Design the sequence.
């Protein structure tokens, strides 16, 4: 068995992972009824712990062989260059533009200013707390951790919002923030990454220029992609061709954005919103709309299943010492506190002009899950003395968010609905 695992190629490994994820999804739907992505990740975590324990008691190094197989999968490239464009486009297509426009100030503030503020708060708090424990990490690397952990990834919460029919405003704010701050967060991360690892010290003008090139360029490019795809889809009355056009956006369109050094994630969000609203309403028949929705719903389910399974199995390749454990324990409350500050402050200002459902801030704070994007960005860091520390903190926050917050957010959403 170990010899077989050692010789598996990338595609065979991915086939096995996909089949395993689908099997867990079926068992969960049939018997457990937990939110699918959470069930898959919990299962992979349990298996990871089991492999580690059995390996310690003489299972012929099975967990080492499995870890070696998983380490040959470049998780960062798989997500950033293979899956992220599809996930963001599929999620953006479900957002109603009119709702987005109604809550544009909340979404814009949370996705931009709050993400920047969270980066600074998390980075500063981690720097001083780690130093208090005699764990020394340079401030720029603490900021780097703040940048990669600040964007929310509430995929599981979005599913629960739909399941319990959460209030429209809450659903829109959660969906809009999560889609846009993924793109904004990546831009912030890349900007700080340039400062931390560039051969020469960048100037503030270069840093600001990079930020605007990525963010504004990505949004403008996304609008261009959406308009071009809309015109092409409007010129044909064949749902298969229209679906293929959307695939071209998420593959060739995303690759071109990366080549132009602009934000591909933001471009996918903007293009997805455009196609999901204008494209669906004015360029498609009812049959085409149903086919398009079904196709992207399936793509979203498949990729999320694989993503959360891989996150759970990443435990096998982490190198954790006492130092990493202490840092990980500290990181969880720091990230939650920063989330509370950066959500409650702007929302308390918006409450002057708008009435929200009860517990809206609580749901947005506790429902601000971190996911695969944070892990992928942490894995993108070059090997060095701080990489394992940042990866351990990131993994701890992600696991806590998906398992603990994800499993306990549903009653809070129901409470919001009942009291609203």
Sequence:
């Amino acid at each position: 068995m170990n010899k077989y695992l050692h010789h598996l190629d990338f595609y065979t490994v991915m086939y096995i992972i996909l089949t395993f994820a689908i099997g867990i999804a079926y068992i969960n739907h049939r018997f457990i009824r937990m939110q699918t992505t959470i069930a898959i990740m919990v299962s992979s975590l349990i298996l990871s712990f089991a492999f580690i324990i059995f390996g310690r008691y003489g299972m012929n190094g099975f967990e080492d062989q499995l870890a070696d197989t998983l380490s040959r999968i470049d998780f960062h490239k798989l997500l950033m260059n293979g899956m992220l464009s599809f996930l963001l486009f599929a999620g953006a297509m479900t957002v109603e533009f009119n709702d987005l426009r109604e809550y544009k100030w909340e979404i814009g503030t949370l996705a931009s200013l709050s993400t920047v503020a969270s980066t600074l708060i998390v980075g500063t708090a981690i720097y001083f707390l780690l130093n208090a424990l005699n764990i020394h990490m340079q401030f720029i690397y603490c900021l780097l951790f703040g940048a990669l952990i600040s964007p929310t990834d509430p995929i599981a919460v979005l599913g629960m919002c739909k399941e319990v029919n959460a209030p429209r405003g809450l659903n829109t704010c959660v969906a809009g923030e999560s889609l846009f701050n993924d793109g904004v967060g990546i831009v912030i991360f890349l900007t700080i990454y340039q400062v931390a690892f560039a051969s020469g010290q960048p100037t503030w003008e270069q840093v600001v220029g990079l930020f605007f090139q990525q963010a504004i360029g990505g949004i403008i490019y996304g609008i261009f992609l959406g308009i071009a795809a809309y015109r092409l889809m409007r010129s044909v009355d064949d749902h298969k061709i229209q679906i293929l056009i959307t695939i071209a956006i998420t593959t060739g369109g995303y690759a071109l954005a990366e080549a132009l050094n602009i934000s591909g994630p933001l471009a996918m969000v903007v293009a997805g919103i455009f196609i999901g609203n204008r494209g669906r309403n004015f360029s498609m028949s009812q049959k085409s709309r149903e086919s398009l929705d079904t196709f992207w719903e399936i793509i979203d389910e498949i990729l999320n299943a694989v993503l959360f399974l891989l996150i759970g199995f990443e435990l096998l390749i982490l190198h954790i010492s006492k130092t990493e454990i202490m840092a990980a324990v500290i990181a969880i409350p720091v990230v939650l506190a920063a989330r509370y500050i950066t959500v409650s402050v702007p929302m308390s200002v918006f409450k002057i002009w708008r009435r929200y459902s009860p517990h809206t801030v609580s749901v947005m704070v506790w429902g601000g899950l971190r996911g695969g994007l944070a892990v992928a960005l942490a894995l993108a860091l070059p090997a060095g003395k701080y990489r394992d520390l940042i990866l351990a903190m990131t993994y701890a926050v992600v696991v806590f968010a998906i398992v603990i917050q994800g499993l306990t957010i549903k009653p809070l959403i129901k409470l919001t609905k009942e009291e609203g």
